[in-house]
Amino acid sequence: MTNIDNQNQENQGLGWKVASIIMGVLLIASIAFGVMFYNRHNESAHKAMDLSTQLDNTRTQLQGELATLNNAYTGEIATNDTLSAELQKKVTEVADLQDRIAKAKKDLRSSLANNKEIQARLAQMEDLKVALEKDIATLRDENVALASSNHDLNTELTSTKDEVVNLNSKVMSLTSANSKLTNRLKVLAPAGFRADNFTVTSADKRDKLTTKGKKIEEITVKFDLNNIPEEYQGNRSIYLVLTQFNGNPVTVVPGKDVNLTFGEEAVNVHAADLENIDLKDRQSMTMSFEPTDNMTPGTYNLMVYSDNGYLGSTGFMVSK
């Protein structure tokens, strides 16, 4: 029993020792933690003071920068207003410039069109100038030719003066022969109307009048048919017959042989030209023929027939 008590007492003493040790350790730990916390608190306090100071300095700096920025913003606003006014002015100037550019383009297009028209007119005038120069050169050549022809005509006129007397006598004979022939033809084939007002012209290849046998290219005969009785009006064939003075055919003039019957009489003619016409009361006719070679100088007879008889005749002369 005594041993148990002693043992309990020893155990209790040991517990207090352990407790004392633990309390000591805890106290030491608390003191160490307090010292560490205090140091950390002081350090944090110092840091907080430093941070506060830095914040104050930063705030002061930022406030100064903000004031500077406000001043700069105010200046920029003023500058922006100035620039806006200048920009509006520039926009107005650009719009005016665009209008002037559009007008200039329009004027340029108009100028180009006028220039093209002027160039075309100048080209036409140049062509006209070239044509006129050619015409002048041609006229000069023709003038030389005409001068030469005039000289030839003067020479021929001198040489033909001696022929005039002979020709006059031949014309008288021709007139007499034509009268006899006309009377005979009227007896043979009275058509009931006449061809009057004969005009005979001969021309060269340039359509210039000439009587030279070697230059004649075409002979044209014009005459009138007037006062045609109604029973002879309507569709008729008109024949132009060419013969030499002696009545022989002209071989250099092509034609068509035609057999005509007037009543009981048969008449064979060599028509140099033939025209079908619807006869009225009055009309003028033009007939023509073209020699295939030079015509022999001399006197020729021209006679006009219709399909119902002889109408009239005339004569013409061909010179050398």
How would you describe the overall organization of this protein?
With 320 residues, this protein is of the alpha+beta class. It has one helix and eight strands, in the order αββββββββ. It has one helix spanning 2-188, and strands spanning 195-203, 218-225, 234-244, 256-262, 265-279, 283-289, 298-306, 309-318. The strands form two sheets. A five-stranded antiparallel sheet has the order 4-5-3-7-8, with helices on one face. A three-stranded antiparallel sheet has the order 1-2-6, with no helix packed on it. Strand 4 (256-262) and strand 5 form a beta hairpin. It is rod-shaped and about 210 Å long. Mean pLDDT is 80; it is low at 185-189. Keywords: Coiled coil, Membrane, Transmembrane, Transmembrane helix. The chain crosses the membrane at residues 18-39. Residues 80-170 form a coiled coil.
Q: What is the compact description of this entry?
A:
The protein is an alpha+beta fold. The protein has one helix spanning 2-188; strands spanning 195-203, 218-225, 234-244, 256-262, 265-279, 283-289, 298-306, 309-318.
